[in-house]
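User:
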Amino acid sequence: MLTIGLLLGLSFVVSLLALGFLIWAMSARQLRLEQEQAYAIFTPGEAGHADDASIPGPDPQSRAPDGGATAHHFDTLRGGIDRVSRSPVLALVASGLFWLVLGSIFGLMASMKLHMPDWLVGDAALTFGRVRTLHLNMVAYGWLSMTGIGVVIWMTGRMFHTALRMPRLVLAGTVLWNIMVAAGGLAIASGWTDGEEWLEIPWQLDIGLAIAGAMFAIPLVATAAKRNVHHIYVSGWYFMAALTDTPVLFIVANNRSYFNDEVHQERVARERGRPVENKWIGQKIDPVVDNAAIARAQGFEAFGPLEGEAAVRAALATARTSALWAFSC
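Assistant: Predicted structure:
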């Protein structure tokens, strides 16, 4: 009961804090929906004019009310903001491009293996299951994640009209993220995974990804706190929510227990006089689900769980024989 009381009390306090934050945001006019709030990302006088820094002097494509040409609005402030963000953004985008190329190579290999099943089967690391998983994880965590974070970092300073805070922390997070993605790729190639789609990287390495995600989120929130505009543009809220949620997501997604339900089961057991130690039954996924047994229960021929290269080779040979027999009938 003490655990339940603490959790309920914590939930109540968090709810009050969230309500207080909402009230503050409304009183501080952060949730205004007037059209003028959409101009928060522009510098004064910029909205409605073409912005082309390559055009020297007046912009012939833009005309003032009196018919004269108006100057473009590329300003030195943005140039200074971009200089601070330049190194972190380049590091993130360059890293993302590297993982895109490498992940695409593994994707091409996986595609070719669908047409040539016997190609590169001498090494377990180059079998279809591992090559395809390497492709998915390198594209998702290497290319999409790092490039997306790079775009966020670049846009943040421009939206908030101030230079990025803690750029070195972002660089450190980039290095750590690359190390964890590389380590995750090696783990997958060696057969060490969590066995969950899109979460194949072992949870021990996911801790490093969560830390790196926090190293991206902290500078973003610090930059927002020091912004030079009153209103936070809607994209800024999405960016902060996404990056601050990433570390939490990795922790929750790698938890193999529906713990909230365990607490509920404990309370029900106490009220009904049942054994409390059974609260985890049906909630905790331990041991790992035996997918092969589930398939056999549905009438399919399935093999596993398999451990070791020899067992995998034997299962593949049996599966091929069964498939040929089925097609010949």
